[in-house]
């Protein structure tokens, strides 16, 4: 990246419309989003949409959600100035500490919101897909707390590389089902969860973990995660008296990114950056960066940017981070990309690993490998911004779950 | 007009139920598909649903999902499948062919381009599992222009007002998914089915095909009492899974014999 990249960042006329008004009534963000599901799910989705519209306006529901975020999750999460990293990188680096949440990532915010909805709808069984296992752990956690049966679908390859989280889910009473179809990763886990849902739709609530899937999921998950940005914006104003110049987050499905971006979308002087998984490098084809090199298509109930071949088959992805290893992305991100409101770039495994070590050595924090992608992007941006500028990074999760992966990559046996 | 409506008119006049088998194109190999299609017709199929393999067949159960994977190992794409239909049409100009699959491969080709090429190849209908009527208006228009029937699903969860919406957009026939679940699921309740078909017919004048959960002559006969068409997928694909690794001729014979058994059961109900 060079200075001309930074200068070419285009800002839409943020005053021209209110981002909060999207999606529209059809669940669309521009051409993206929608409801591309089998007929059996159309009515359940319509019911979910109606229920969500009712409860999000219900003060009792909002109060219960906010109470749980405070007393069970430990919100608000801290806003932290990374002093030594700022010195090393050359800009003022701040972390929004979602890694300090109960269960160790932002995923719990959404899992609580949807589980409360499931309970109000009288569902007795919860299912979810998971990649890195963070959403699976969060879902198993809330299911345990509410006394609901819980089944988590997880790709066989991800089970292999995220053993600690698999064990956590089991300890919480969840059944973890290994998915051996397709590429044995997150997208296949989502296929399998959809199959379960379509079969058991009467008693089952599907808690999707990202801002993906058919409407109303992208909206619902965004709303539950937007607490991140709402808090961060207020905290930044309180601590520094101003807004950040840049906000950076990693993007797999994109829930932590939407969560922190949303409160800043109408702030035209805040530039937003999304770090996709660049894997071995975009040019190698071994990555998970649909916004960087994909094209719009239909998968998992939504129209969005996808990684696909010329025949429209979804292609296998690669990332060191299981949580970013997804060939699609939430439809709102596709829309924000096309609007030019958010800048998306692929961050390689190598750069993410380097940032992982930086965060540990400079700040004494173990970042999730997913979040390390955002830090790596901030490292590239910092010299372009300079030491008077504030770059806010969403530290979306903690990396305890990743230490086996890191050890293996570095040839160390634990 | 496609071949679908004339087929149902003819069958109605003869008081017969249509038999529509489903086959994933390219399973077990791309070279096998046209021969298997002829074998199905030889065994008594009235129309053929040809599955377009997709990397992420979310609405399909393990049997058909595995068929998609087998086909994709040979890199079978939509363009190859249109070639297969064209080849099939050289020998068979009368049996309707319905493509069944997911939206993304069609969009990758371009919907208008696909509609035109499908018409030229001799395709009669397209059923896109993940394209409900709410998302299908533009697509349905393009298909109509190419004399291709957009086939829509109706599910046990579909309320009456949605059946009306589907009926407005559909042509050819509608496909009633007889159970909640994925393809290949079990436990078909024929009494509940009869009541449900009565409701569907009240809202929709098109013939109603029933699929999901029909696995043998007995279940086909039970459903055949109520439906205008009986659709068999997983049971047939399972035969291909078991015997597909061998030579083409014995596989075709097995498939044809399986069809003939169901045909006999439907014609003697």
Written overview of the protein:
The complex is a heterodimer of chains A (414) and B (269). With 414 residues, chain A is of the alpha/beta class. Chain A has helices spanning 3-7, 39-56, 59-73, 83-89, 107-120, 134-146, 156-161, 163-171, 186-199, 217-225, 227-240, 255-261, 290-293, 331-339, 349-363, 369-385, 403-409, and strands at residues 28-29, 32-36, 79-81, 92-97, 125-130, 149-155, 175-179, 204-206, 246-250, 271-279, 295-299, 301-306, 342-348, 390-395. In chain A, helix 12 (255-261) links the parallel strand 9 (246-250) and strand 10. In chain A, helix 5 (107-120) runs parallel beside helix 6 (134-146) and helix 15 packs across helix 16. The longest helix of chain A is centred in the N-terminal third of the chain and has 18 residues, at 39-56. Chain B is α/β, with parallel strands linked by helices and 269 residues long. The mean pLDDT of chain B is 95. The interface between A and B is large, with 38 and 45 residues.
Question: Which descriptors apply to this entry?
Answer:
heterodimer; A: 414 residues; alpha/beta; six-stranded mixed β-sheet; four-stranded antiparallel β-sheet; 44% helix; globular; disordered N terminus; B: 269 residues; TIM Barrel; eight-stranded parallel barrel; 50% helix
Sum up the overall morphology of chain B in one term: globular
| Helical run tally of chain A | 17
Average pLDDT metric of chain A: 94
- Biggest interface, residues from each chain: A-B, 38 and 45 residues
Write the layout of secondary structure elements.
The complex is a heterodimer of chains A (414) and B (269).
Chain A: H1 3-7, E1 28-29, E2 32-36, H2 39-56, H3 59-73, E3 79-81, H4 83-89, E4 92-97, H5 107-120, E5 125-130, H6 134-146, E6 149-155, H7 156-161, H8 163-171, E7 175-179, H9 186-199, E8 204-206, H10 217-225, H11 227-240, E9 246-250, H12 255-261, E10 271-279, H13 290-293, E11 295-299, E12 301-306, H14 331-339, E13 342-348, H15 349-363, H16 369-385, E14 390-395, H17 403-409
Parallel strand pairs in A: 4-14, 5-6, 5-8, 6-7, 9-10, 9-14, 10-13
Antiparallel strand pairs in A: 1-2, 2-12, 3-4, 11-12
Helix pairs in contact in A: 3-5, 5-6, 5-10, 6-8, 10-12, 11-12, 15-16
Chain B: H1 4-14, E1 18-24, H2 33-42, E2 48-51, H3 62-72, H4 78-91, E3 97-101, H5 103-109, H6 111-121, E4 125-128, H7 137-145, E5 149-154, H8 160-169, E6 174-177, H9 190-203, E7 208-211, H10 217-224, E8 229-232, H11 234-243, H12 248-267
Parallel strand pairs in B: 1-2, 1-8, 2-3, 3-4, 4-5, 5-6, 6-7, 7-8
Helix pairs in contact in B: 2-4, 2-12, 3-11, 4-6, 6-7, 10-12, 11-12
């Amino acid at each position: 990246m060079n200075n001309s990249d930074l200068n070419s960042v285009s800002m839409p006329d943020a005053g021209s419309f209110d981002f909060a008004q999207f999606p529209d009534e059809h669940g669309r963000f521009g051409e993206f989003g929608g409801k591309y599901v089998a007929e059996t799910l159309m009515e359940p989705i319509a019911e979910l949409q109606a229920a969500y519209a009712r409860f999000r306006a219900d003060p009792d529901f909002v109060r219960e959600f906010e109470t749980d975020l405070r007393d069970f999750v430990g919100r608000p999460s801290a806003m932290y100035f990374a002093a030594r990293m700022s010195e090393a990188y050359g800009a003022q680096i701040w972390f929004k500490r979602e890694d300090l949440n109960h269960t160790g990532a932002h995923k719990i915010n959404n899992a609580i919101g949807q589980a409360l909805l499931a309970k109000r709808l009288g569902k007795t069984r919860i299912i979810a897909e998971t990649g890195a296992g963070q959403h699976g752990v969060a879902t198993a956690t809330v299911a345990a707390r509410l006394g609901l049966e819980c089944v988590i679908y997880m790709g066989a390859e991800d089970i292999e590389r995220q053993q600690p989280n698999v064990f956590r889910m089991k300890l919480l009473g969840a059944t973890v089902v290994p998915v051996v179809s397709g590429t044995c990763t997150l997208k296949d886990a989502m296929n399998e969860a959809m199959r379960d849902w379509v079969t058991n739709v009467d008693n089952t609530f599907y808690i999707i973990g990202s801002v993906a899937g058919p409407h109303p999921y992208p909206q619902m998950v965004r709303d539950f995660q937007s607490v991140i940005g709402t808090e961060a914006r207020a905290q930044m104003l309180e601590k520094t008296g101003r807004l950040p110049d840049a906000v950076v987050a990693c993007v797999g499905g994109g829930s932590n990114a939407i969560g922190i971006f949303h409160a800043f979308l109408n702030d035209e002087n805040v530039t937003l950056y999304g770090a996709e998984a660049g894997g071995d490098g975009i040019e190698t084809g071994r990555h998970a960066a649909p916004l960087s090199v994909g094209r719009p298509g239909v998968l998992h109930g939504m129209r969005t940017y996808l990684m696909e071949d010329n025949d429209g088959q979804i292609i296998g992805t690669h990332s060191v981070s299981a949580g970013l290893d997804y060939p699609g992305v939430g439809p709102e991100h596709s829309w924000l990309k096309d609007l030019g409101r958010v800048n998306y770039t692929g961050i390689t495994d190598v750069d993410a690993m380097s940032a992982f070590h930086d965060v540990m050595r400079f700040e004494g924090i173990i970042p999730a490998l997913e979040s390390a992608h955002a830090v790596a992007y901030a490292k590239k941006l910092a010299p372009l911004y300079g030491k008077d500028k504030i770059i806010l990074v969403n530290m979306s999760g903690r990396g305890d779950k990743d230490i086996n992966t890191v050890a293996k990559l570095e040839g160390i046996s634990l | 007009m496609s071949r679908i409506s004339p087929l149902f008119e003819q069958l109605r006049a003869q008081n017969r139920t249509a038999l529509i088998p489903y086959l994933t194109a390219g399973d077990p190999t791309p070279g096998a598909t046209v021969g298997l299609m002829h074998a199905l017709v030889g065994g008594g199929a009235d129309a053929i649903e040809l599955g377009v393999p997709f990397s992420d067949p979310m609405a399909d159960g393990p049997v058909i999902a595995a068929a998609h994977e087998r086909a994709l190992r040979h890199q079978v794409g939509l363009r190859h499948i249109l070639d297969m239909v064209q080849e099939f049409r050289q020998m068979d100009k009368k049996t309707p062919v319905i493509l069944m699959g997911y939206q993304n491969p069609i969009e990758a080709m371009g919907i208008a381009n696909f509609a035109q090429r499908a018409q030229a190849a001799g395709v009669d209908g397209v059923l896109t599992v993940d394209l409900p009527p709410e998302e299908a208006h533009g697509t349905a228009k393009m298909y109509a222009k190419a004399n291709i029937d957009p086939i829509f699903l109706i599910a046990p969860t579909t309320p009456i007002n949605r059946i009306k919406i589907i009926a407005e957009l559909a042509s050819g026939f509608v496909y009633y998914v007889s159970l909640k679940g994925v393809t290949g699921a079990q436990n078909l309740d024929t009494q509940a089915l009869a009541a449900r078909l009565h409701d569907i017919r009240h809202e929709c004048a098109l013939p109603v095909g029933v699929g999901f959960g029909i696995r043998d002559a007995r279940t086909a006969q039970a459903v055949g009492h109520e439906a205008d068409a009986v659709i068999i997928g997983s049971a047939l694909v399972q035969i291909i899974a078991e015997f597909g690794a061998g030579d083409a001729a014995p596989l075709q014979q097995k498939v044809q014999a399986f069809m003939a058994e169901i045909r006999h059961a439907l014609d003697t109900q």
